[in-house]
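Supplementary Methods. Inverse-folding protocol.

Structures were first reduced to a discrete structure-token string of length 280. This string, shown here, constituted the complete conditioning input.
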């Protein structure tokens, strides 16, 4: 997968945690092929609670050379040389530059455990678990579990006693310690009070600096008031995954993105101008 100078006229920011579960599934090969037309003048930025390592694997499987946002906005990861100008405030990380919004993982783990101990609430976090235990609890393979444990900004954890009252007490105490607790499936997560919005805003400004006129599209699997949707020109909404049902299909996700981009290209060509921000 080669990284080239950023020159898209359409940038799609997509939440993917309801879609991209197992990169080893054959459907990922089909989805990668379906996304090929996007490369003409588009970029796809993945926004996820997954780690940088997990998303690097996903990008490889989908043949995506673009930046991404990991750990619920903990950092924006920009491949080296992607923009033809220096991005300020970055940290070098394995062939990329990270713009960090989250708090260091070691600090998050320390504060989380000290806070839980003080409240006498027993918790088990990823930092306490082996790769095998993460694989078992999350129903994933060992490779995925290993990548999921390479945390940099957030700590997934579960309460041994999952009573709502205990969780509420812990979340309030974390808030007082300048962290945020959030529910995320089987696990809660502790990290800095950030989300993908800062990363989306940063990347939008960088793309506009690089190419000028730009259309932005948001793909979300949450609710219409999702922060992402307030930052983009157009939206693709998908229903939440129902408990106990299979997640949204990765091939359908890819096709929906490409179809929307094709539609926007047609409108732009027909009107001779870029759609105004805020249109849907």
């Amino acid at each position: 997968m080669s990284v080239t100078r950023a020159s898209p006229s359409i940038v799609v920011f997509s939440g993917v945690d309801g879609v991209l579960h197992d990169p080893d599934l054959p459907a990922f090969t089909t989805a990668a092929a379906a996304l090929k037309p996007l490369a003409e003048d588009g970029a796809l930025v993945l926004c996820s609670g997954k780690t940088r390592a997990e998303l690097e694997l996903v990008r490889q499987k989908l043949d995506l050379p673009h930046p991404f946002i990991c750990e619920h906005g903990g950092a924006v990861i920009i491949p080296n040389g992607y923009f033809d100008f220096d991005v300020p405030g970055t940290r070098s990380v394995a062939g990329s530059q990270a713009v960090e919004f989250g708090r260091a993982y070691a600090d998050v783990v320390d504060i989380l455990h000290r806070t839980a101990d003080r409240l006498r609430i027993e918790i088990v976090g990823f930092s306490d678990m082996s790769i095998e235990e993460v694989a078992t609890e999350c129903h994933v393979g060992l490779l995925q579990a290993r990548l999921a444990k390479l945390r940099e900004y957030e700590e997934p954890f579960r309460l041994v006693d999952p009573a709502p009252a205990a969780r509420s007490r812990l979340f309030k105490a974390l808030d007082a310690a300048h962290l945020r607790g959030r529910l995320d499936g089987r696990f809660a997560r502790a990290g800095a009070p950030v989300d993908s919005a800062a990363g989306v805003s940063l990347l939008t400004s960088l793309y506009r600096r690089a190419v000028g006129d730009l259309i932005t599209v948001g793909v979300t699997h949450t609710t219409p008031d999702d922060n992402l949707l307030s930052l983009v020109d157009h939206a693709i909404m998908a229903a939440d995954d129902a408990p106990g049902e299979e997640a949204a299909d990765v091939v359908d996700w890819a096709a929906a993105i490409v179809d929307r981009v094709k539609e926007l290209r047609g409108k732009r060509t027909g009107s001779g101008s870029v759609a105004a921000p805020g249109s849907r």
